From TrEMBL:
Keywords: Amino-acid biosynthesis, NAD, Oxidoreductase, Serine biosynthesis. It catalyses: (2R)-3-phosphoglycerate + NAD(+) = 3-phosphooxypyruvate + NADH + H(+); (R)-2-hydroxyglutarate + NAD(+) = 2-oxoglutarate + NADH + H(+). Catalyzes the reversible oxidation of 3-phospho-D-glycerate to 3-phosphonooxypyruvate, the first step of the phosphorylated L-serine biosynthesis pathway. Also catalyzes the reversible oxidation of 2-hydroxyglutarate to 2-oxoglutarate. Residues 457-530 form the ACT domain. This is D-3-phosphoglycerate dehydrogenase. It comes from Cohnella kolymensis. The lineage of its organism: Bacteria, Bacillati, Bacillota, Bacilli, Bacillales.
Length: 530
């Protein structure tokens, strides 16, 4: 049974998938302080948050069993990603579910700003019929500058066009072709500062975007511009904005987000007549909250159940078509890694993975993570290694990872091979996925074999001489160890050979010692694969 803690208000309908799963127990505890969360997090396998809960290094240290943190939304600035990655905690988000909702909120804010709706409402309900103070401006024929043309920025641009606005877009990833497709003029920040009547920001908050509109930009910004921020507090310098409005350069601003949330009671935005605010409501619609909760719940279930998942924030993204090609090989990669690690003596220096056949034509890096996870799990313990931290752990231990591709298929449609270099030896294991039969180990060192990589195995290297198989069989039988499968591999008659036995239970150490002591036997290794 996996225990999931939901520590922010998240749509019940969205998490019904989790609530109905027989292997999941959900606790909902919102509004916890860091101390309170640190006290209880140790018993949970997963934590589900929105933007309120700050998942700090301290929380993750206390979360001894935490495998996954799900963020029902886009921004993960409330989660210490470095700490999560080091600990192998997978952080997932739901990047698509609130795009339209936040775009619509941006538009609502822009229109409310253009027509002074909140200020007019306050006066009207206060009993003052004031039709002179609230003369607004049209959006039509105005220039809208969009900083950040990702999911939300692009949707805002599309709607602005329907309002008859000319849209300038700036984004380091916006190409001329895409801008043309979106009907947007590809602009620089300076173009936008110079020409825009409205500016809206839709970037993440990064060191680069922090105060991307600050005092310097305000000093040359177009007279009468209106500024909207429904992305992250801090992208626009709040102090500089107030100064620019007070000086008359900027006509007004609409903010959904603040550098510090909630803002202090004396924050100037809260009383400024030309600034309208909402309390980080961009994603707050019934639809978006359901969407993000459903997305993140699905992913969370996959992760807890050890299935393939997408949208991990602390892992490079994998395109859906690549994922569908690689997914069947994840178990093979991890198993081969584990097999190679169990047969090799000495500390690992290098893991060289070679892919051939169909696999040679896709980005196999995600699969390499599984191989590395398999190798390191043997040495560091499977509780401490997973696909998220495998590369980080390898790097921190100076284990070199080499990935190569070859068109030589050795007769297999797909082939994965691992050469494991330790400071004592070099071992080789290769495998494939046999259509209809699943994973197979096809070669160990120089010996071709056909082994189902599962359960307890005994790998024996010996001289190819009559009687040796019988002696090993007798020894195992006398010790009540049943042989389920057997594969013998040799290159030449009477030369070096290997034997891979599938046995029904683990081989105890003293029995292994007796096997190794048999004549004509070089070595024997006990291997366990899941
Ligand atoms: N107010 C809310 O409730 C709410 C809801 C959802 C998202 N958000 C926030 O809105 C923002 C945008 O979300 P999204 O889903 O569109 O993200 P996204 O990742 O799809 O788009 C962000 C874009 O910003 C661009 N970018 C990065 N650095 C830049 C820079 N220096 N200059 C210009 N562009 C830059 C990226 O290339 C990317 O295209 C995020 O900060 C997100 O956290 C807020
Ligand atoms: O949880 C929220 O409402 C905030 C969502 C938003 O800021 C996001 O980044 O997805």
């Amino acid at each position: 049974m996996f225990k999931v803690l939901v520590s922010d208000p998240i749509s019940d309908l969205g998490i019904s998938l989790l609530a109905e799963a027989s292997d999941i127990a959900i606790d909902k505890k919102t509004g916890l302080s860091e101390d309170e969360l640190a006290d209880i997090i140790g018993e949970y396998d997963a934590l589900l948050v929105r933007s309120q809960t700050r998942v700090t290094d301290r929380i993750m240290t206390a979360g001894k069993q935490l495998k996954v943190i799900g963020r029902a939304g886009v921004g993960v600035d409330n989660i210490d990603l470095d700490s999560a990655t080091k600990r192998g905690i997978i952080v997932i988000n739901a990047p698509d579910g609130n795009t339209i909702t936040t775009c619509e909120h941006t538009f609502a804010m822009m229109m409310a700003l253009a027509r002074h709706i909140p200020q007019a409402y306050m006066k009207t309900v206060g009993g003052v019929w004031d039709r002179k103070s609230f003369v607004g401006v049209e959006l039509r024929n105005k220039v809208l500058g969009v900083l950040g043309m990702g999911r939300i920025g692009s949707e805002v641009a599309a709607r602005a066009k329907a309002f008859g606005m000319t849209v300038y877009g700036y984004d380091p990833f916006l190409t001329e072709e895409r801008a043309e497709k979106l009907g947007v003029r590809l602009a620089s920040v300076d173009d936008i500062i110079r020409d825009a009547d409205f500016i809206t920001v839709h970037t993440p908050l990064t060191p680069e975007t922090r105060h991307m509109i600050g005092r310097e930009q305000f000093s040359r910004i177009k007279q009468g511009v209106r500024i909207v921020n429904c992305a992250r507090g801090g992208i626009i310098d709040e102090e500089a904005l107030v100064e620019a409005i007070d000086s008359g350069r900027v006509a007004g601003a609409a903010f959904d987000v603040f550098e510090e949330e909630p803002p202090a009671a004396d924050h100037p935005f809260l009383t400024h007549p030309k600034i309208i605010v909402t309390p980080h409501l961009g994603a707050s619609t019934v639809e978006a909250q359901e969407n993000v909760a459903i997305d993140v719940s699905e992913q969370l279930l996959h992760i807890l159940r050890g299935e393939a998942f997408k949208n991990a924030v602390n892992m490079p993204p994998v395109a859906a078509d690549v994922l569908s090609k690689l997914e069947p090989y994840f178990a093979l990669g991890k198993t081969l890694g584990s097999f190679a690690a169990q047969i090799a003596e000495g500390p690992v220096k290098e893991i060289a993975v070679t892919y051939s056949g169909d696999l040679a034509n896709v980005d196999t890096q995600p699969l390499t993570r599984y191989v590395v996870e398999g190798v390191l799990s043997h040495h560091l313990g499977s509780d401490h290694v997973n696909v998220v931290n495998a590369m980080h752990l390898a790097k921190s231990r100076e284990v070199k990872i080499v990935e190569t591709k070859t068109q030589s298929t050795k007769g297999f449609t797909n082939h994965v091979s691992i050469t494991l270099r330790t400071d004592k030896e070099e071992r080789y294991a290769a495998g494939t996925l046999l259509n209809g039969f699943g994973p197979r180990i096809t070669q160990v060192d120089k010996f071709p074999v056909d082994v189902e990589p599962h359960g307890h195995l005994l790998l024996i290297s010996h001289h190819d001489k009559p009687g040796i198989i019988g002696r090993i069989g007798t020894l195992l039988g006398n010790n009540d160890v049943n042989i389920a499968t057997m594969q013998v591999g040799r290159k030449v008659v009477g030369g070096a050979a290997i034997m891979v036995l599938g046995v029904d239970k683990g081989v105890p150490k003293d029995l292994l010692r007796d096997i190794i002591a048999l004549p004509d036997l070089n070595n024997a290794k006990v291997i366990h694969l899941n």
